[in-house]
Amino acid sequence: MKEVPKKFDFTNSELKWQKFWEENRLYESHPIEGKKKYSVVIPPPNVTGILHFGHMLNNTIQDIYCRWKRMQGYEVCWVPGTDHAGIATQVMVEKELAKNGKTKYDLGREKFIELVWEWKKKNGGTIQRQLKKLGASVDWSRERFTFDEGLSLNVRKVFVDLYGKGLIYKGKRIVNWDPDSQTAVSDDEIFYQERKDKLYFIKYVLEGSDDFITIATTRPETMFGDTAVAVNPKDNRYKKFTGRKVHLPLTDRLIPVIEDDYVDMEFGTGALKITPAHDLNDFEVGQRHKLESVTVLTKDSLLNEHAGEFQGLKIDDARGKILARLKSEDLLVKVEDFVHNVAVSDRTKAVIEPYLSEQWFVSMKKLAGPAIDVVRNDKIKFYPERYKKVYFHWMENIRDWCISRQLWWGHQIPIWYHKQSGEIYCDVNPPSDTENWVQDEDVLDTWFSSWLWPLSVFGWENNENDRLNENLNYYYPTDFLSTAPEIIFLWVARMIMAGMEYKHEVPFREVYFHSTVRDGRGVKMSKTLGNYSDAIELMDKYGTDALRFTIIYLAPLGNDVLFDEEKTQIGRNFVTKLWNAGRFIMMMKEKNVFTDRLGDEIEEVDITEKWIQSRFNATLEEANRFLREYRLNDYAKTIYNFVWSEFCDWYIEFIKIDINNSPERSNAILDNAMKHYESILKVLHPVMPYVTEELWHLTGNDRDNRSISFEEFPVSDRGRIDERIETDVEKLKLLISAVRNLRTENGIEPSQKSHLYIAAPSDTKAMISKFENQILKLCNLEIFEFADKKLEGKQYASAVSGESEIYLLLNASLNTEKQSEKIAKEIDDLKRYLTTLEKKLSNESFLNKAATDVVEREKQKHAESKEKLNKLLRLNQNN
RNA sequence: GGGCGGUUAGCUCAGUUGGUUAGAGUGCUACGUUGACAUCGUAGAGGUCAUUGGUUCGAAUCCAUUACCGCCCACCA
């Protein structure tokens, strides 16, 4: 036994155990033949990232499962790593450059990439340090980066393979063009923002006539790319125009009027200008009608040569000038206010320009099939289950994946073009004759490396049958994936597709979609909104365990977490409570003067012991079940309630009394208490690794090199659950509360001893007698006796608790009015209750239709309440 | 526009096959610092279970409707 500090010094403790875990390489994993494994891959955070609340929650969840499984004897392997995060990282380094007035073009591609690597070396370790602080029991020897050599090889391998299978193609498509970073971004990397805009009504004059069609548009500047005007075939207003041609304003071009179902007759004028190069829907209309696509914008969103005199202008400038011209030519009919959604780049916040360009695509339909099946037949389980629906909907309507990005930081596409012949070469390695070939400039979407993550981190690049692949063979498929719901398509779905395509096996068996962390008002936490609490700061302030516990306690499966700094007190107070309980038991052992071990049979005879064992085993049953069912907040709550409301509030109070009354048994009692306490530490270790490790070492003398994280996780022994004893102790608690209540109400000083009479049926008497010492102490009585003596002539306050009537003897005169008022209210409530019961019991249909045990229960309730009512009525008379 | 989730005490949430006089934590109020813990203890107040209707002997629980909040998908010029 070591000396126990009065307070838990979490700052030093965290450093100490981080070091201990790392230096002893406790969480490094190796394939062990015949041993069951549990493997998890971390969702790789951006290499530029810092730990925010979402990470904290997500990694705590993973850590809980890894620690839990480790304590169950599994060979646990949790692989950490980071993502090179194409745009995010490139943008960050470009900003650095801009501070010195430079652009990436000043450096050139090669130098720029070198700079990013340097930047990564300098700033990239942050999130790893923060994960260590969080206590994440990952295997650091296995850390991976999506740009590592092996992982990059896998990326090329998959590209080449899919290209060979004809599943990768290059096509002219409308993509989401981010004019700031000058790259295409996927549909999943944009979001829509509501904007107030104008809707412009413009005349398109019919060829050889004064007649005209008015179209409505929000983007007049794209009119130079118009190649048709479309109307709905059912629209009689425009029948006379179809098949004819109209003058494209401000130009000398003529464009046809066509019919297409896509046009909404109700909207605007019912006539739509078609700009295939700058709108996805228009592009599709254009395909159907074999229209030409005219691009009118440059890559940085300036008008190009098709815009005539407006060439070189920015969109906004051009719009004003074009409108002025239209007005002067009397072609602008009117302008209306208009609210619509505008696509914005997730990374740069630039307004997305639908842009026709050459991009690489993966054809997804074929890959989706097997990935749908494995979720449908539960080879992969989703928690919460409802995400299955979301998944199916997306997968069944899957679109091709635009994988090319016009960036420099990323895996460059393994395609080479022959300088003379234009021949295409696709391979994991460059052509040997480098002189005559030039590589495709584009890089791949970051997710094109992330979707291989569960394969890549275990060395998939090595030959399948190679012994080097024992890692992949042992750890794949992984067992558990915990992730944010917003990347279900971006990442989860694609990993499933890759796993099925390349391993014919799921990449993981269970997926947990964790809560979104919001602030106290329910707004999603984000840096830009400023409602952001710094997770690391709070860990420093309250302790990592406190924060981990709080967030798990607050995060129910399938619901969001509303986090407020104030709430961290839940965890902090609990850590303190746990600490003090341990400190107390240890202090008692230290002080204990009895050296013999009388009363070793304590477990068999002592009702206190039997009770706590019963409660603890019931708690263990629940805790294990909740962990299995991914109900982490319930797991946290169950132990919290047990430790606080049963172990501390009652059990420790009971043993104080037991020891006081039979000090010769104190060794046995305290040993038992310590045994339970240590089990509590084990149950809590997955969620609070530091304080449990600290206490585990403090309570044991011989544990210098043993971590609690390899102790066996306690399981319930159902044979120890004793409902009879639990019921008795519940009654006892109620009795004690009732007496305390009487004392408080009658103004008896806490220090003042009092005298209690109890009237009860004989079996209850027997039960109460067993707890005589506890009742005396916990109610601060000098004496209690059964009320067969006459109470006449004595002043007392009275109450009914269960089957017992209790009479508390008073010295001072009693405030009888208050007493009878209270009892009267109790009588009232009870009478009302009895009425509802009687109504139910006199109801023929209830008696006939309800299950017999239900009827029995109601009858019993009735009898009990009736008896209690009689007792109360008697008390009231006596008063 | 389509889909999904939520609405229970001031706040955060339990309440999992319909059968409790609807619970917990936190906050609030009163009292308490004599040996684990004031980051504490004891006691107390506090709810028409969002609305309306239905099924049922019986509904917080099942069904339908409405309202509000949130999320996802699609995006209409």
Short note summarizing the structure:
This protein has 879 residues and is α/β, with parallel strands linked by helices. Helix content is 45%, strand content 17%. Strand 1 (37-41), helix 2 and strand 2 form a beta-alpha-beta unit.
Q: How are the SSEs ordered, and which strands pair?
A:
Layout: H1 10-23, E1 37-41, H2 53-71, E2 75-79, E3 81-82, H3 86-99, H4 104-107, H5 109-123, H6 126-134, E4 144-145, H7 149-164, E5 168-178, E6 183-185, E7 190-205, E8 212-217, E9 228-231, E10 245-247, E11 254-259, E12 271-274, H8 280-288, H9 315-328, E13 332-345, E14 353-362, H10 365-376, E15 381-383, H11 387-396, E16 401-402, E17 404-405, E18 415-418, E19 424-426, E20 437-439, E21 443-444, H12 447-450, H13 453-456, H14 470-475, E22 478-483, H15 488-503, E23 508-513, E24 517-518, H16 535-542, H17 544-554, E25 561-562, H18 568-591, H19 602-605, H20 607-628, H21 632-661, H22 666-684, H23 689-699, H24 723-745, E26 754-759, H25 762-770, H26 772-778, E27 781-786, E28 796-801, E29 804-809, H27 816-841, H28 844-849, H29 852-878
Parallel strand pairs: 1-2, 3-4, 9-11, 15-23, 22-23, 24-25, 26-27
Antiparallel strand pairs: 5-6, 5-14, 7-8, 7-13, 9-12, 10-11, 14-16, 17-21, 18-19, 18-20, 26-29, 28-29
Helix pairs in contact: 1-23, 10-11, 10-15, 16-17, 17-18, 17-21, 18-21, 18-22, 20-21, 20-22, 20-24, 21-22, 21-26, 22-23, 27-29
The protein binds one RNA strand of 77 nucleotides through strand 8, helix 8, strand 13, helix 11 and strand 25.
